[in-house]
Amino acid sequence: MAKKTGAKRALGVDRGGTHTRIVLVDGRGAELRRLVRPSGNFMALPGLIARTAAAWGLGPEVPAVVATRGAMTRKWRKPYLFKKLAGRIGLVDVISDAEAAYLAAHGERGGAALLIAGTGSVVFLKQAGVFRKFGGDNPPGGDPGSGLWLGSRFLSLSAAKRKGLSRRDRAAYARKALERAEAGDRAALVLVRLAQDRLAGLLSEAAAGRRSRGPFRVALAGGLMQNDFFRRGFVRLARELLSPVRISIAPLRCTAETAAAGMAARRRQGCGK
Length: 273
Prior knowledge:
Elements: H1 2-7, E1 10-15, E2 19-25, E3 31-38, H2 45-55, E4 63-68, H3 77-85, E5 90-96, H4 97-106, E6 113-117, E7 121-127, E8 130-135, H5 147-157, H6 167-182, H7 186-208, E9 216-221, H8 228-242, E10 247-249, H9 256-266
Parallel strand pairs: 1-4, 4-5, 6-9, 9-10
Antiparallel strand pairs: 1-2, 2-3, 6-7, 7-8
Helix pairs in contact: 4-9, 5-6, 5-7, 6-7, 7-8
């Protein structure tokens, strides 16, 4: 009986810039187990997955999808994970964390977009099964409109010390900028509106690359978009900038790791097992 139930389970992993989340779901997509750990060095990821799978009594019969930063740009990561996890878990695919977030909002639907505004900023548009990336070049001063970009510029206006601060530390000052802007600080408001404008520009580029003329479904993710003040202002500005294109904001239907687990379950038969 346990074997039959186990055969219907699936594992999803989402390794983001801050945390790595692992979830086990049953055949109906209901969550059975969950683990959250700080994201360390990528080379340690296979060990974390293997130890978690062993602790949960999972083996190669359980399909898994791993979503990780850098999967699109560092092509060696996919074969590396397949090699390291062989015989430990039924790895089906390795995708980017952005693709997992897209799946969480839109499923397999094409013609929609995902805008991520966290430490970095990027827009992904899925067209004919292929993802196109807009932004996300990660320059030293931060992607335009990102938390790093906003925090760095806010630091230049404040008396806070900048020397020796890491990228993550500088990005953390974006929260201070938002607090000041919401309180009515004029200089902070100008910075925040400029960040929103830069992000709306990225979305406009993606909209121009669409083939459909219907409503443009867009999901919003990342730390900046979790701030209601920033999110509302961005949506208002984006709708003005992209008019007459009608923007439909799509909520995330589940977490990225749960979407990855669902992808593993759907591909189970394709694995021939």
